[in-house]
Amino acid sequence: MYYKTRGYRVFSVLNTCFLIILAVMCIIPLVHVLAVSFSAKSAADANLVGLWPKQFSVEAYKKTIDNPVFLHSIWISVKRTVLGTALTLLITFLAAYPLSKENSAFKGRTIYSWLFVFTMVFNGGMIPFYIVIQKLGLMNSFWVLVLPGAVNTFLIILMLNFFRGVPKELEEAALIDGANHFRTLFSIYLPISLPSIATIALFSMVFHWNSWFDGLLYMNNSDKFPLATFLQTVIIQRDMSSMSINPKEMELISQTTVRAAQIFIGAAPILLVYPFLQKYFVKGMTLGSVKE
Amino acid sequence: MKTKKMLPLLGMSVLLASSIAGCSGNNNAAGGNNASGNAANTKAETENAYKDKYDPEVTITTVWGVDPELKFKNGETIENNVSTKWAKEKFGINIKSLWSITDTNGAFGTKLRLAMSSGQEMPDVVTIGTGDATIAQDLIDSGMYREVGTLFDQYASATWKEAMAQDPNVWNQYSRNGKKMGLPVLDYAYNHDYILWIRQDWLDKLNMKAPTTIDELEKVMDAFKNQNPDGLAPDKVIPLSIGFKTSMNTWMGDPSWIFGAYGTLPQQWNVAADGKLEYGSVNAGMKQGLEKLKDWLAKGYIPQEAALWDENKTSEPAVAGTAGIIPGPYWMSGWPLQDTVKNVPDAVWAPINIPAGPDGTVMRHGTQFTNGVTLISTKMKNPEAFFTYENYLYDNFANPQPGSELDNGLFAGYDYELDASGKMVANDQISGGYVNSVRYLLVRDGARIPDAQMKALLNLANGAQPTTRLEKDVAVNYGKGTPAAAKVLLQQEDKSFKNMFTGPTTETMKAKLDYLNKIENQTFNEIIYGKQPLDSFDSFVTTWNAGGGEQITKEVNEWYDSVK
Amino acid sequence: MRTLRKNWQFHVMLIPAMILLILFSFIPMGGIVMAFQDYKPWLHISGSEWVGLDNFRYLFEREDSMQVIWNTLIIAVLKMIFNLLVPFIFAIMLNEVRKLAVQRTIQTLVYLPHFLSWVILGGILLDLLSTDGFVNQILGSFGVQPIFFLGDNNWFRFTVILTDIWKEFGYNTIVFLAALAGINPSLYEAAEIDGANRWKQTRFITMPSLIPMVVVVGTLALGNVLNAGFDQIFNLYNPLVYQKGDIIDTFVYRTAIQNGEMGFGTAIGLFKSAISMVLILVSYQLAKKWAGYRIF
């Protein structure tokens, strides 16, 4: 076996070490944010915190947990992510199947594909979009967070390329057995596409979890904000020169440590999702089920 | 090929969308007609229309850009809260919100533009901050908002008129051909006029006096750096914490006074010797200022990465105790400098005057007395109702005498609370928490008289006990050192120079200003960093003038002549 | 009609997506006409003045136009290339880590930076990359003179591209990992029997299996060929590096967004979209012609 050779073992050790160093480099900023969130405000404002908390304090977390708007926004984000991802998955799954067919099998396939790509590249900008949202009565409605982003051309194209890897024999066998395309899609394609579905789901979840502009623009009150929108209102530095401000207010605004705590708590759920989805990336899974 | 097949669909979508836009356009045109009808009606009604309380109720529609930090309690919202109830009961004014948006990243301005674009109903009364100045100008140009000067003359109370008269220039920004199109929102004067904050404990240990000239300042900075009293290594000390990332003319960590010592203030319009307006950055004095900054950077007196530092970054070394001097507002002892002692227990910050140049010149930028505008719609049936509301606030809230109705604050249980014995409790002990309910009012901050706060501070600085609401407020909220700092600030009252151009963006500015600003920032920073010779300042001035600057100067002066 | 009867299921499957596309993409696309208008919000699209190509002219007639466009292209293209290459190589290297727990841990950690916004990272990088910061201290121990990463025109683009890759490569790797999961293990078994060493297996089995995905992701990335990353540059740039760091988006932000010049903003958007579309068309045709592969 190749991994028993000496050369490969040396390579393997070096390779692993290199990747571990890389991984460590990637978590430095997050560790810093975490350290700030557990530090005293005076140390954080002075930028004295490195990778370890200074003057350890859990004050920031207390304040974060005490903030009902923050907690509520997490709930809205969860709702949005779950519903939005489910809808995107369904639409992507349905749309990618016909598009993955050969031109000979599905005339008009190419027109559809280009329509999708066209919308990926061109857009009319904010104003007409806003008018449409308004005419559809989606203003201030939860669905404005879910519906407009549900069709994602990038994901559809990824999916259709995954579908092309599915052995033709499987489909043909199913069709001969009298199954229609819907049955084929859900009983043959679905079970063997778990790695790709996991990928699409992950991208969609991350998209929903991170989107903030729609919440800001279409929601009247902060009690309808998803988490990303809430965080955006907290992390953006405001132009103090154009507002009259007194020191008391400045102190409220510049809560470096609370901000860090919110960023960390805000990122935690989506970070936890990934390791969970990883088990679908197991090598050979697709083909494994084919053999059966 | 494929593109051909797509064309019909694209065409269709264009048609669809423009039909949507068309619809809304038509709606609005119809609304416009109504408006002129209403305006005529209003004229007839305005005879003695002004009342202290309206019965039947009148409605004022408005929209809100809500500050992200603004809190609510008791399940209230910006649409429905203690302040709207108060307006209803007190004045018979029903404040109806058309929409609201949390204002971050300029969201309020964006939403106003989108609301206009989509033909949504526009509010009767809207207050817009200086951050959204362009949208305010757009709204004025749209013709949807009316001339307000006559309304103000007719209805405003004496207190309000006096406050507005403190600086007649406040109207300039919102005037069109001599007509006053918006009510300036007054703010406290001097809020961002800066002074220098210096580490008094360092001075004392070095046996030095506070610098009064640029030369003395250099000696102090050198001592701070090379014989640091706290024993910090020279490369760990930032004698003067300033930054240029956003601008050379800002509110904290600001370098503009260094140019001021040589007779000019960059990035604003100053009155030149001939009485005309001149763009400060092309004044010859800039060159000397740049030379100083270049020298200071080389000697390590200012942060090595000053070009990358914004305002908040400049405060970091000050709070950490590694900076010796930081320019900033008089209220900085309340924030952020109060935290320095937590990091360096011996630290003492003292406010000092801006040092003078070789010929004794001192200049610093001055804060406008206004921080926004209130517009009144042409469609509004009862514009006088807004004055009923605002007059009351000016007469009873802006600077009330002890014993008057709003003497303690606006709403009990919100922005203040009295205990059983009638004494005011500290903000953090208000049951259910303090909320800044002043921000629920139609005009941001309710009503402010520009010089009132400074007067209150001076009274405190001179040893008076706080008696009026303003005095109590500054005593509690502005930090212990603030009255003394305010006094220092006013010692150089006549050295504050405001940006004299406050008009709408001129035609040439629209086309050229961004590029001119870009080469200006680039040239100045590169000179300071030694990447361009000092003399490239002269070629910058030539380029600036030729590239549209001369034309802009002409337009600016035309505007200035029209409002002078 | 016959084909419709045969393919009706395909059309039905596409209905939900098409409805949403029409509502939220095609109808709003009518707004593109604003690119040819001096758009005033209160006049709406129907009433605003038509100005022909004036909005486009402004983009090209500024003294620094070419510089800004060039900056955009070079930053965007290099980011595109390396954001494909690095995840591709990383995925293959990660594939060689045989301990599953280690592999998954590394995978999770490198994916973290994607979730920090540039506002936050900007502040952190300012410290990490400052002349006496962490990175320069490490370089200094190898005798390297301090480098002014964020304030030197010679280094700024490099810094921007490198930090972007560092932030995104873990996230971009996911799609390749999913593709790796689809490789038939029996291919490796056969190669093993043939006596191919691991490098040969990687070279002749792993890499070719990933290439279609590289082409697909690369082509779709062309849609962003003139997006050099507004959030990142906006948070990192400063007057010292305008020359090499000012891009179309920051320029549009300063001139159009801040001043509410919607017509100009739309024009720039249209210009960028048109270039992207052309590039996508070209690479689609190339892939079809040379590899016989339809990307979508």
From TrEMBL, chain A:
* Family matches, as Gene3D superfamilies: MetI-like
Localization per Swiss-Prot or TrEMBL: Cell membrane
Q: Which UniProt keywords apply?
A: Cell membrane, Membrane, Transmembrane, Transmembrane helix, Transport
Q: Does the keyword Membrane apply?
A: yes
Task: Fetch the InterPro entries from UniProt.
Answer: MetI-like, MetI-like_sf
Domain ABC transmembrane type-1 as annotated: residue spans? 74-274
CDD domains associated with the record: TM_PBP2
As for membrane topology, the entry says: Multi-pass membrane protein
Q: Which SUPFAM superfamilies match?
A: MetI-like
Q: Where are the transmembrane segments?
A: 12-35, 81-99, 111-131, 143-163, 184-209, 260-277
Known Pfam families for this protein?
BPD_transp_1
Check the record and name the PANTHER family matching this protein: ABC TRANSPORTER PERMEASE PROTEIN MG189-RELATED-RELATED, POLYGALACTURONAN_RHAMNOGALACTURONAN TRANSPORT SYSTEM PERMEASE PROTEIN YTCP
Could you say which protein family the record assigns here? Belongs to the binding-protein-dependent transport system permease family.
Q: What is this protein called?
A: Lactose transport system permease protein LacG
**What organism does the record attribute this protein to?**
Paenibacillus auburnensis
From TrEMBL, chain B:
Q: Which controlled-vocabulary keywords does the entry list?
A: Lipoprotein, Signal
Origin superkingdom = Bacteria
Record keywords: Lipoprotein included?
yes
The signal peptide, as residue positions, is 1-29
Return the InterPro entries for the record: Bact_solute-bd_prot1
Name of this protein: Lipoprotein LipO
Q: Which organism is it from?
A: Paenibacillus auburnensis
Q: What is the lineage of its organism?
A: Bacteria, Bacillati, Bacillota, Bacilli, Bacillales
TrEMBL record, chain C:
Segments forming a coiled coil: none
Q: Which UniProt keywords apply?
A: Cell membrane, Membrane, Transmembrane, Transmembrane helix, Transport
Q: Which residues cross the membrane?
A: 12-36, 68-94, 106-126, 169-188, 209-230, 262-284
Residue stretches making up the ABC transmembrane type-1 domain: 69-283
For this entry, the protein name equals Multiple-sugar transport system permease YteP
Q: Which domain of life is it from?
A: Bacteria
Matching entries from Gene3D superfamilies are given as: MetI-like
Tell me where it resides: Cell membrane
Pfam families found in the cross-reference section: BPD_transp_1
Q: Belongs to which family?
A: Belongs to the binding-protein-dependent transport system permease family.
Specify the protein's topology with respect to the membrane: Multi-pass membrane protein
